[in-house]
Design goal:
Blueprint (H helix, E strand, L loop, with lengths): L1 E7 L1 H6 L5 H9 L13 E8 L8 H13 L5 E4 L1 H6 L3 H11 L4 E4 L8 H13 L5 H5 L14
Helix pairs in contact: 3-5
Length: about 150
């Protein structure tokens, strides 16, 4: 049995609402990066942890603290989600830090099966991040009226 932990991108999960459903579905179906495990070996998802966010000088240290929570449960592998694979400019730095700190844990870059190229994926994600969004400031300053009605407040 392989005990697996998954590391997600905090931007994708927290800002864009990714539920990791594709990653989990392909784990169950043994597609994508999970196809590399022997067919007769049971895969046990131990936990999912979110990256601490794009790093400052403490990025790898913060990540190691989070990953420690998974390693305490005897995981065999940590999979970086496809979001991390396609979007994260720090993934190789993170991978190296994890391999150094946890030499007995396999680090895999990828989870679900890729349906579009990483370049196309990055372009689509960029569009999501660049859409105009309302914030609490808009509400406080009453900038666009009552949401859903299109009417201005008086």
């Amino acid at each position: 049995m392989s005990r697996i932990g998954i590391l997600t991108c905090s931007n994708a999960t927290q800002d864009l609402g990714c539920s990791s459903a594709s990653c989990l579905a392909d784990l169950r179906k043994r597609k994508g990066a999970f196809a590399d495990y022997p067919a007769n070996e049971k895969l046990d998802l131990v936990g999912i942890i979110s990256c601490p966010g794009c790093p400052t000088l403490t990025g790898p240290d913060k990540l190691l603290q989070r990953i420690l929570a998974l390693t305490e449960f005897n995981i065999d592998a940590i999979h970086f989600t496809y979001c991390m694979k396609a979007l994260c400019p720090f993934k190789e730095q993170y991978k190296a830090a994890l391999e150094k700190t946890f030499p007995n844990i396999k680090i895999v870059i990828g989870t679900h099966q890729e349906h579009i190229t990483p370049e196309e994926y990055r372009g689509r994600v960029k569009k999501l991040f660049c859409r105009p969004r309302k914030t609490m400031v808009d509400l406080i300053l009453d900038r666009d009226g009552d949401p859903g009605t299109g009417r201005k407040h008086k």
